[in-house]
Amino acid sequence: MSRKPVGETMFDREAGVFRQPATIGRRELCGGFGALALGAMLARDGITRDGEWQPPTGLPSRMARAKSVIWLFMNGGMSHIESFDPKPALNQFAGKTIAETPFAEVQNPKRLAIERLVVPDGNGNQRNTLYPLQVGFQKHGQSGIEVSDWFPQIARQIDRIAVVRSMWTTDSNHGAQTQFHSGRHQNDGDFPNLGAWVHYGLGSLNEDLPQYISLGAREYWNKKDGHYLGPAHDATPLRVDPANALDFARAEREIPTRAREVAVGLLQQLNRERQQQSPRDGAVAARVASYELAFRMQRSVPEAVDFSGETAETQSLYGLDKPHCRDFGMQMLATRRLIERGVRFVQVQHGAGGAGSWDAHGGLKGNHERNALAVDQPVAALLEDLGRRGLLDDTLVVFATEFGRTPGSQGSDGRDHHIFGFSVWMAGAGIRGGVVHGATDEIGFHAVEDRHYVTDIHATILHLLGLDSRRLEIPGRKRLEIDHGEVIHPILA
After folding, report:
1. What residues are paired with 447 via a beta bridge?
2. Measured distance CA(465)–CA(471) in Å, rounded
3. Which of 488, 487, 430 is nearest to 65 (CA)?
4. 13-22: average pLDDT
5. Does the model's pTM come out above 0.85?
6. What sections of 324-442 are H helices per DSSP?
7. What is the dihedral sign for C-alpha 447, 453, 456, 457?
8. What is the per-residue pLDDT for 116?
9. Tens digit of pLDDT for each residue in 128-150?
10. Half-sphere exposure of 293 (CA within 13 A, CB side)
């Protein structure tokens, strides 16, 4: 069990509370005989009768390996072939069209037949002139996995990481960001994203903090999370600023502590009376709970993003002393502090704005050098710091992007969107470190070995959290089989 001193109290991550060491937390009360009593009460109320839909209990439906998730998303489409899937054939045949290479005929995984490789890129354009790699690769760690020289710090953590090189998706434009988050095309309608499903399915680890938090800017088409699950399951946006971490969380003027206590006590009394008058009104109970959480967050949220108690070594580890990665480093350090305090799901999006900063249709080398420099040290520091503190044992870290970039050139020095094969990686709770799973062909065009649609990442995360997506389904909101995805078992420890 990992504990964090906070004043005279300790944060018990397993119980999800701040407390004196001798006290008993909510998790302990809910376990053992408490769980049996809860089951008996639910059965008494008729909730568990056979054939009836059951809302989530807030508990895993199977043994869980993970308690929390960190979702790192690189907006715009990071090049898989210049990050975690090296293709030296691109250098060998640079400047030649695909038709002029030995790769003109390939096994197309969609049709399972040999055919001419004249498949267009994700936008329907032919990008057939091969473009050489813009960076070198080196083998790292005991595993010897090759990683781009643009990510030297993450490379040092490679033995903690499972790289999946065989992802695919179908949205050829940046609606693929929505598709990766929710499993559904942007035009399919409103569907909850992964963080909302996790929030919906599991209970709180710390009742003083929101359980689904978003750090950093978000694309305009990707700002809703809960959709038909309801706005209660949207992410809470935070800023890494103790003075103004959360919108509307500060009082307009300072109020004496005693006056606040009296006001809160009166409000709680009025809320209880209202609930007694309308005991079956779920909306009243939900609103009361949200107001009470908001009050508690006025203290807990600013403390969580206040780095004044962090050592100089820790702040330097995250790159807070370097202008090129300070902003993202602050988000990564805040992420560790939030996870440490019991937040269930932290989503951090890098490069939001327009299509996303990784969208390198031209000037790919300069674009990816800048972006990699901004995220490499902070992400590696997050893995290192979580590992030092024992938090990586039950925290799952995901590093993803909506699609890859074409092996062929766009213009003179760019790559277009590429949906047929790209890479993501995962680390932490329940993940085998130092492994590569799946493969693209010799030029990184098609995912040809152990192919995985984006919801397979979702299925793997939910599996490690002890959740079954089919048990979370809402009556009248039947999901497609592909929405549920399939667990990527070979990368599990």
Report:
1. 440
2. 14
3. 430
4. 39
5. no
6. 326-340, 364-388
7. positive
8. 41
9. 899 999 999 999 999 999 999 99
10. 15
Q: Name the token pair of 424.
A: 């993501």
Q: Which residue has the tokens 């807990």?
A: 300
Locate tokens 């329940």: which residue? Answer: 430
Q: Which residues of 357-368 are buried (b: 16+ CB within 10 A; e: fewer)?
A: bbbbbeebeebb
Asked whether 309 and 337 are in contact (CB, 8 A), the reply is no
Tokens of 84: 């975690």
Comparing 111 with 440, the larger pLDDT belongs to: 440
Instruction: Dig out the tokens for 290 from the structure.
Output: 């949200």
* Length of the chain measured in residues: 493
Q: What is the largest CA-CA distance in the chain?
A: 80
How many whole angstroms separate alpha carbon 472 and alpha carbon 465? 13
**Tens digit of pLDDT for each residue in 257-306?**
677 677 667 777 777 777 677 776 656 665 566 656 666 667 778 888 99
The alpha carbon of 220 is separated from its chain's Cα centroid by a whole number of angstroms, namely: 18
Q: Calculate helix-pair angle for 257-277, 282-304, nearest 10 degrees.
A: 160
Q: What is the separation, in whole angstroms, between the first and last Cα of the chain?
A: 20
Write the burial class of residue 293 (CB in 10 Å: 0-12 exposed, 13-18 middle, 19+ buried): middle
Tokens of 313: 């070594």
Helix (H, G, I), strand (E, B) or coil at 263: helix
Dihedrals φ, ψ of 455, to 5°?
Answer: -75, -10
d(CA 406, CA 359): 12
Return the ∠ at Cα 328 (arms to 172 and 83), rounded to 5°.
45
CA angle 412, 407, 91 (to 5 degrees): 80
**Tokens coding 239:** 């800023």
Element (H, E) at 316: helix 312-317
The one-letter amino acid code at 287 reads R
